[in-house]
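Why run this: before we spend reagent on co-expression, it is cheaper to look at a predicted model of the complex and decide which construct boundaries make sense. The entries below are exactly what would go into the expression plan.
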Amino acid sequence: MAAGPAYGEEKGGSSSLGEPEYGHDPASGGIFAADYKRHDDLKEMLDSNKDSLKLEAMKRIVAMIARGKNASDLFPAVVKNVACKNIEVKKLVYVYLVRYAEEQQDLALLSISTFQRGLKDPNQLIRASALRVLSSIRVPIIVPIMMLAIKEAASDMSPYVRKTAAHAIPKLYSLDSDQKDQLIEVIEKLLADKTTLVAGSVVMAFEEVCPERIDLIHKNYRKLCNLLIDVEEWGQVVIINMLTRYARTQFLSPNQNESLLEESTEKAFYGSEEDDTKDAKAEAAPLAKRKPYVMDPDHRLLLRNTKPLLQSRNAAVVMAVAQLYFHLAPKAEVGVIAKALVRLLRSHSEVQYVVLQNVATMSIKRRGMFEPYLKSFYIRSTDPTQIKILKLEVLTNLANETNISTILREFQTYIRSMDKDFVAATIQAIGRCATNIGKVRDTCLNGLVQLLSNRDELVVAESVVVIKKLLQMQPAQHSEIIKHMAKLTDNIQVPMARASILWLIGEYCEHVPKIAPDVLRKMAKSFTNEEDIVKLQVINLAAKLYLTNSKQSKLLTQYVLNLAKYDQNYDIRDRARFIRQLIVPTEKSGALNKYAKKLFLAQKPAPILESSFKDRDHFQLGSLSHLLNTKAVGYQELPDWPDEAPDPSVRNVEVPEWTKCTSREKRKEKVEKPFYSDSDGESGPTESADSEPESGSEESGSSSSSSSSSSGSEEEEEEEEEGSGEQSEDKEEEEEEKRPKRKEKEGSWQAAPGSAGSPSEEEEDEERAKKAKKKVALQGKKGCAETSEEEASGFESSSSGSDSGSEAEATQRKAPPSSRAVPKEISLLDLDDFTPPTPQPISSSSVISTSLVTDLEGLTLIDTSLAPTLLSPGFGAVRTYELLHRMAGEGLSVEYCFSRRPFPGDQHMVAVQIQISNNTDTEVKSLRVSEPKPLSGMRIQEFPEIEYLAPGETASVVMGIDFCDSTQAANFQLCTHTRHFYVSIQPPVGELMAPVFMSENEFRKEQGKLTGMSEITEKLMLSEKYRSDHAIVQQVTSAANVGRVPCGADNEYRFAAKTVTSGSLVLITLEQREGAAAQLTINSEKMVIGTMLVKDIIQALTQ
Amino acid sequence: QDYFGVCSEVMIKDNVVVVYEVLEEMLDNGFPLATESNILKELIKPPTILRTVVNTITGSTNVGDQLPTGQLSVVPWRRTGVKYTNNEAYFDVIEEIDAIIDKSGSTITAEIQGVIDACVKLTGMPDLTLSFMNPRLLDDVSFHPCVRFKRWESERILSFIPPDGNFRLLSYHVSAQNLVAIPVYVKHNISFRDSSSLGRFEITVGPKQTMGKTVEGVMVTSQMPKGVLNMTLTPSQGTHTFDPVTKLLSWDVGKINPQKLPSLKGTVSLQAGTSKPDENPTINLQFKIQQLAISGLKVNRLDMYGEKYKPFKGIKYMTKAGKFQVRT
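The model came back. Tokens follow.
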């Protein structure tokens, strides 16, 4: 029993400490001499009917136990009190019982009846503690009673008691493993429990008792995944570890197929409301049909649900999730754990040690993951040595051609450390870097040679060993170094280093023909005083010299061999004898003699310096075995990925009454079905028949009136989830309140022209497009036009980037006719007028759409919050400029606008979004930019060629232009397959900058620097319309791409930006005076920009 | 720690019984059972003098006889029925700078480790939201379980039902990739000569990028090489000690006055006969800056829902040196 040892430790610890202090303790002081009398005293107290006396006695007894003294003769007296009413006395009696019951089994039985009564107590706390103690008493006779109690408790009303029952299972199992079958039944029952409290404990019991019964998990897998985030921390750890194993047996390896990377877009869902993701998933799943291989949605579910746990405060949880990702996630996604692990490096050194061990292993396999965090692994002089060495290991693993110079510089500092073990490790690390990265090999070697003149012997010895290894790779060029090292033999005393030098000289004696025999001579002189390892190398050297240069060294060799013959060490004697036979030709020597030279001077492969963590990855990360690098007791190998995916339908849940997860799960299943039957064709008819009727009804329910189904599920939630129902409902309500607001925001986001700023956004767009399409399709069938959807899809089609453009077109093409006509002509500006859809009489579809909107909202907000654009919250309208009128362009009309996003690839460029529509009735081919004629310094990054634009279609692309902070127009040609158009883009001054974020203080400080010439002040009268806060901010941010700076004063507004090319600051202050008067101040190094900006802003505010 | 203040040997010995009781609740068969201190406190009430007195008179116990509802409710970290006459919520934003500064004074690596510690004494079940002026700074965060993660993901607002009393709401990490302002600099001139057994030693500490705040509680420690016998130093301010056994030099500077920079000058006497140490000691620095969060994080507002009364709110910023090393 594990509790036993735990208490035992406690006892042992305090007893040894407490021993000398008997006198101070009231429990044992004074009465120590008369041992049995004291017990009489205690017995009397226990027998009294005063609770306080009993309590006092029990406290003394527990104190005795803690000291490690035997209190077992009090057993009868104590057991009597098990029925005591006072809870504290009772608890202490329990403590006592757990400690001594095994010794006095017969007497312990007396207490059993009390426990049995306790198990029926109305107070759940008492029921639980009775069960806990009962199961902790290791008396074999009561096994049946325990079994009964556990079974009963497993169906107790209180989750706390059920949890205790789960805890009792492994205890009973360890007492009597024959009960396994019955216990598994209980576990199965408890696994079906859906309170978070129980989940952790029962999985723990499962791991203890029957980890091989993976089939028990199937039905509960999804539930566990979904509950995971609400389970208490320690439970999370156990569950995550179990799920890792489960996933390894049930899913295919995500890394075997590259096409899978596409799927990774799905992970963006995890942030949004659960219900929504479920909906979205349900919709997205049929799409999957087209893909050749897709990760099992359940696999994805696991990854998605564990990811937020990376932000847990509990290091164990983070570590568990990290190992789960490492073992289960596709390569592209493993990176997310790096940040969390680096964060853990700040905690206690014990945690650091474990984390670094794991990081070291991971960094071998996935080097890229930790590269951005290289500096976090730099070593501080206050770190303990083992942490230093681990960090060094990680640094070495991370070294590559690009960062090697910084790492080596860092290593140079380490070499001068006072901690000599660490210095030695650093030298080895340098050696490893040198072997891994050919480029720096010479630099490293030179550095190491310099170290040879170090005063510290250990350092020198270590360098010699490393140099030896390095030289072995390319001996020819380095005879100088060898000579230098030969000289060192006089000084170096460390045997390992001496041996290394000798070996080196012997091996490459041809490169240093003069010195080698001399070294041998010296060594022969001191032979008897050398260490064994050196002696062996001396013999070796002698043999080699004899073979290459027998004239000079014959006698010396004979001498050395003779000395060795009478050495005390048999190893050396043997070696000498063996070598003599080999090299010295005698009449008896056989054929071997001829090959002696080949034997000794064979080409030896260079050693491979590799990490000691190389072979550790076969242990599960985060396990004890991994830490020790040996198999620990009870370690279970992490199973390999299966070749064939086991039948995924086993995870389907039959019981329909589970709400939240299951009903939605159902819907998901139904969509999954076709996919699976497509791909492996083994989802048997039974399963599909099994779930068909339900899913059918679900489908009709969901599509016809999903509002009712969602409210229905809410109700059910209340019934089902005793505790959490309330809160989730609250959330739901909150959610409901937020929706309109969110929608507004959504609208404004859409207004920001969605040129696909970064790849991820493109993905997002794509995803949105897909979903929007689905939505439209869904509604199309119903035939009810749904404004928000159309707008959304319209937005997609008009604004998504080059990649998603085609996707969006596809969306349009596939959209059913009812909604087709509307979105086509919606331009970005129209979206400004976006208003929430008017409530529809049948709210069925609008509920879906709101949830979709919120879903999208979740996605977009995450994204935009990272982009600086968020800082200018007010900018609504984005002006569109005409590049080519449809008349001039013979039907081809081109418009452009400034998307105000950083241009991917070059941050000095302004991103210009170009929208090309083909109004002709013939198709336009190979649309591209050609012959840009930029003014000096100006650069243009063309958009990728549009191969084909059908009549009536619109394409949208992004190009980057570096305007060099001037408002000069950029001229270029726009070519089609037939025509060339000369066009030019002239940026308004406000677009030449990007917002910067700064605090009020920073703003003041910067403003202080930019006075005098750089300051421009102008008075103005605010126009009627623009006197409110909001309007002013909006006008300014729409006139120029600036970010608002917080400001203490009410009537002052501050904005800051940086010019895109040179990055010089532009600071704007607007002070509102009495009435409409106001004063505008602009501080900027670029006076031209400043003046122009003043004009623009004044114009914007006075119109 | 919540029970006894400091976890010391004496403390454990004095409270053996309580420790037993607590452990009993925390672990079952070696598996963690309940580790949330709020729940434990309800199960077993921490010993206070008042309670001891009351207990001895009335004979009542300090073991709660009710199962804490928190254990079963959705907010396991908060006990029910909390009552205060003064409702207050204080938040401390504490940031620690971990940095390595190299010989020439340039920053090799610097990161900020921040925490928001809260002391919430509010009646009932308040639902708090905390919003930041610049939530973008927080990209690597770990939360107390009470924080609603989804709300943070979508709106960058901390929404939570706080535990009662002191707790760490979140901790964050501003990593080495971002630029970190280093508020102090150290000028040093430490040299040992091969010929003589004396070395020169000079350190000056000065403020840099402190945003106008005073640097307080400055403490310089340095582990001298083994060969150092003794040091004769005169500080311009504060006190210094050198322990010849552990070779640890510490200099308690106190406040830095930008007009008169504190310095420590003197000579180092080395053991005769030993060669000069081949490395200069690293200097560890400690300091505190009140009312400043060096990363620039600012709390925007704190709102409370779910309860009627108006709580007293307070927020404090502080920047400290974490592992702040200057290589010489």
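The first strand of chain B starts at residue 27 and ends at 28. The two ends of chain B are 39 Å apart (CA to CA). Bring this page to Monday's planning discussion.
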